Amino acid sequence: MAWIVLVVAGLFEVAWAIGLKYTDGFSRFWPSAATLAAMVVSVVLLGWTMRTLPVGTAYAVWTGIGAAGTVLLGVMLFNEPATLARLGCVALIVAGIVGLKLTA
Predict the structure, then answer these.
(1) Residue 63's CB: how many other CB atoms inside 10 A?
(2) What CA–CA distance (Å, rounded) separates 44 from 97?
(3) Of 42, 60, 64, 90, which shows the fewest CB atoms inside 10 Å?
């Protein structure tokens, strides 16, 4: 169960990272409120998973999901470059997440 919650926490991290783009420096109320809510949910869920999972594993997986997801959504939503090198680096992050899951 902790792993499922950790994935959800990582998805909320992606949500708040992407949300930051829409807050316009926290000058827009609704995007800012949604981003702050996603931040809180993400960190609370991460903290909950750390009751069961090792702190290093949980944090690394959480940030890895956030980083990989944010890069991929940046490509899809903001036309950021999808070079072979960038996608290869995202694949390495995903491989690291899988490796941590298999060894935890």
Answers:
(1) 15
(2) 20
(3) 60
